[in-house]
Write a structure and sequence with these properties.
Length: about 700
């Protein structure tokens, strides 16, 4: 048999032998069987997990959208979305939430949530090298309609330049929108950070360097839409503006009349005895203590004492009816000049001519009428009572003058104060009025440089202040200290007819709290000013730093301007003509930094900080200039027909510490240049309603 035929027979026998075939076929089919098991178990389980993840993503997106709708905070949005996911067993690291443009509705925002988990593969590794399977699920929840207040920075006039930035400027509005009824211009080197930018011009916002961004690096929603004035028709604003007419019609109070000049006997308190005879002639007695060089006048039992001229000799002290009755009336027809220690008892005093004090002078409680100017020097003290100063009060340099609580009617002096103006009260030293008291000063008051003046105490004070001869009702010199007690009781008023020229550099001006401050004139601040709570209706303009100024120690703290629960209502009848404030109704200049102005948070004027002219015929605007930085204004800053201009490194912010207090900047146009910045920490609530509708769109 040949070798060839042997090989053929061997192959035939092998083919006919079935031993081991099952093992071979099993080896060939096993990977296929394992793959089928992987599809059924591992990939099937992944599909179930993906369905669970999708359900959780839907819930998380919905929760995040609800949180954002109520808070306008991307941090709270993310926290809500992650919290829902972790409660359903998803690790926080596997959840991503972001604010995006809605894929369904143009111009709307949405919350996108993505969940990525991993599933380890065991059986499937037989067919491939992959060791785990990525399981992805995503959902998008569209936010509801935008609030009625569309933004915290808003340019209303469609014929003006809208919102314009230049020269390294910034608008930070991470929790609200920036809106313009015309163009939005954001050149290179400038930025707007906001959840959205609305414009209503033919061209989209100009941002060659992509200067418009959303919060935390997200994309801002840029939409073409018209924006209505959110405060148009606001009843609180309408009522506040209507009061301007009442303020404009105010007139100054009239000066008190001079007391009747009833001639009586003269009194000469000197070193000789004729004083005894003179005292007897008017129905009184006089005794002299040589050891103390003191005369004592006693008018016990007299209801009326008529005196001509009182003369007090050098080195003589006088006790004038110090033990007398409060019901006695003293009519002094001539001049009275005191230079030593003089004490007057209680009673009614009618000084028909001049009263001049130089030494230590004390008056008891009573009613006082002065026909001519009163000039105080040394230490002069008056008790409580009713005071009529026909020709004003002047305090001498270095004097200390104190009045008890009372009613003070002070006429206008015949002489100028500091060579500037004829006023009712000219203080050149230290003058204190007790309180609560009522003040009527038809010629206003001047507190000269370095002087200290306090009006009243408590809450029941009342003020009617008219203009001096130069038109200023209140004039404060550099380094002066002026405190006006509160006027918040029923019946209290705060009325000023004339300008408030509120302080030179280093001065302190504490304005009383009052429900309503009526100022028929302009308000010009130059030093540290503490505005008491209430509405300030100013029939003119309001400027800070137009004539210089800055921070100073005031009422125990170093401040520039501070006011809590304050609303300014400005007519704009007049506009400033000073420096960088020229032509504006509201101005912060001269490096006036760290202003804190907070609107009321409740009540009629809630969330309204500054209200400019509301008539289309008055286009007076507002400016922050000359490095006036870090102004914190909380509330609506509203100039519907006037521009809001910022330049020279100025900045205006919302509250740094309380996100419930927000800046809403509204003007006919908004222009920032020269390194300026505007910031709003949250969306203002004036007239706003939060969105509540949320819907899943993906």
């Amino acid at each position: 048999m040949s070798i060839k035929s042997g090989i053929i027979r061997a192959i035939g026998r092998l083919a006919r032998n079935r031993d081991g075939n099952v093992l071979i076929m099993s080896a060939l089919l096993l990977p296929i069987l394992i793959g089928m098991a992987a599809l059924v178990t591992e990939y099937g389980s992944a599909l179930v997990e993906r369905a669970d993840n999708q359900r959780i993503a839907d819930l998380s997106a919905y929760a995040g959208a609800l949180a954002y709708n109520s808070t306008k905070s991307t941090d709270r949005m993310t926290a809500a979305a992650v919290s829902v996911a972790t409660l359903n067993g998803i690790p926080a690291a596997d959840v991503q939430a972001s604010l995006v443009a809605s894929p369904k509705t143009s111009g709307m925002n949405a919350v996108s949530v993505s969940i990525r988990t991993q599933k380890n593969l065991l059986l499937a590794r037989v067919l491939q090298s992959r060791q785990e399977l990525q399981i992805y699920a995503g959902a998008v929840a569209e936010l509801g309609a935008q609030p009625q207040t569309p933004g915290c920075v808003l340019a209303l006039d469609g014929t003006q330049t809208g919102v314009t930035l230049s020269g390294g400027t910034t608008i930070l509005a991470p929790s609200c929108t920036v809106a313009s009824n015309n163009t939005v211009t954001v050149p290179c080197g400038t930025t707007i950070q906001s959840i959205g930018v609305n414009y209503n011009s033919t061209a989209a916002p100009s941002q060659p360097c992509n200067g418009i961004t959303g919060p935390n690096g997200t994309a801002a929603v840029i939409a073409k839409k018209a924006t209505n004035d959110p405060l148009a028709g606001n009843t609180a604003i309408t009522g506040a503006v209507a009061r301007i007419a009442t303020v404009a019609a105010l007139t100054a109070t009239t000066a008190p009349t001079a007391p009747t000049n009833t001639t009586g006997g003269d009194l000469n308190f000197g070193w000789s005895t004729p004083t005894n005879t003179q005292a007897t002639a008017i129905g009184c007695t006089a005794t002299f203590a040589s050891s103390t060089s003191t005369w004592t006048l006693d008018c016990t039992g007299k209801s009326t004492v008529n005196i001509g001229t009182i003369t007090i000799g050098g080195g003589i002290n006088l006790n004038f009816a110090t033990n007398g009755a409060a019901t006695t009336t003293y009519n002094i027809a001539g001049d009275l000049t005191t230079s030593a220690t003089t004490s007057f008892g209680p009673g009614t005093y009618n000084f028909a001519k001049t009263l001049t004090t130089a030494g230590t002078t004390t008056f008891g409680a009573g009613t006082f009428s002065f026909g001519k100017q009163v000039t105080t020097g040394g230490t002069t003290t008056f008790g409580a009572g009713a005071f009529n100063f026909t020709k004003g009060i002047v305090t001498g340099g270095g004097a200390t003058t104190t009045f008890g609580a009372g009613t003070f009617k002070i006429g206008i002096s015949d002489n100028t104060c500091g060579g500037i103006s004829r006023v009712s009260l000219c203080n050149t030293s230290k003058l204190t009025f007790g309180g609560p008291s009522t003040f009527e000063m038809p010629g206003g008051f001047m507190n000269t440089g370095g002087s200290n003046l306090t009006f009243g105490s408590g809450t029941g004070n009342s003020y009617k202040i008219g203009p001096g001869s130069n038109g200023d009702a209140i004039t404060l010199g550099g380094g002066s200290y002026t405190i006006m007690g509160d006027a918040t009781d029923t019946g209290s008023v705060f009325q000023v007819v004339g300008n408030v020229n509120g302080g030179g550099g280093g001065s302190c001006f504490v304005v009383s709290a009052a429900a309503q401050h009526d100022i028929a004139g302009n308000f010009m601040g130059s030093g540290a000013i503490l505005l008491g709570a209430g509405i300030y209706t100013v029939d003119g303009y309001f400027t800070l730093g137009s004539n210089g100024g800055g921070s100073a120690t005031c009422n125990g703290s170093t401040i520039s301007v501070s006011g809590a629960n304050v609303t300014l209502v400005l007519s704009g009848k007049n506009k400033s003509s000073a420096g960088s404030c020229n032509g504006y109704v509201f101005c912060v200049a001269a490096g006036y930094s760290n202003i804190v102005l907070t609107a009321p948070q409740t009540g009629t004027m809630a969330k309204l900080a500054v209200i400019g002219p509301t008539s289309s015929s008055n286009t007076g605007g507002a400016t922050f200039a000359e490095g006036g930085s870090n102004a914190q204004i909380s509330g609506a800053f509203y100039f519907p027909y006037g521009p809001v201009i910022m330049n020279g490194g100025s900045s205006v912010l919302g509250s740094k510490t309380d996100t419930s207090k927000c800046l809403q900047l509204i003007g006919s146009r908004i222009t920032l240049s020269g390194g300026t910045a505007a910031t709003s920490e949250c969306i203002a609530a004036s007239g706003a309603t939060a969105a509540t509708k949320v819907s899943l769109v993906q």
